[in-house]
Amino acid sequence: MRKQSFQRRDATGHLEPKYAADLRSRIRRSSSPPEDVAFLARAKSLDPLAEALGEEFLATATTGEAVAVEELNQIVPEDEGGPFVTTPARKEFARGRDASNPRGSTREPFPTALGSDGEDQD
């Protein structure tokens, strides 16, 4: 009696759809649940620092070079500064007295830690 042969691939070498579906279902049943993931639950992190550290680790591990130093030395847009508003000094610096310095108040030459009676001022 001759053994029955199973046809698992078609003429082009692709798996038969029924056999492929059976393999996928067996894999799902035998795989561990998602809570057993070692480090990450997904490919991208919502934390930018974690994302940057992960990318740095992978780049360093795959190239064998310290990538962090090169990345820290890169020129980024923040190095160029930001939008500046040019204003004259008379707008920037106060003239006269404000409510915290009423007329008739004594002016201290420098701020002091102790009052005139020698006790701490809080």
Report what the structure shows.
The chain contains 4 helices and no strands. It is an all-alpha fold and 122 residues long. It has a domain at 42-75. The chain has helices at 17-30, 48-63, 67-72, 89-92.
Q: What is the string of SSEs from the N terminus onward?
A: HHHH
The helical percent reads: 25-40%
Distance between the termini: 103 Å
- How large, in whole angstroms, is the Cα Rg? 36 Å
Beta-strand fraction estimate: under 5%
Q: What would the average pLDDT be, to the nearest integer?
A: 75
**Which structural category do the helix and sheet elements fall into?**
mainly alpha
Oligomer: single chain
The helix count comes to 4
Give the biggest beta sheet.
Answer: none
Q: What's the total number of strands?
A: 0
Unreliable runs, pLDDT <50, ≥5 residues?
none
Mass-distribution shape: rod-shaped
Short description:
The protein is mostly helical and 122 residues long. It has helices spanning 17-30, 48-63, 67-72, 89-92. It has a domain at 42-75.
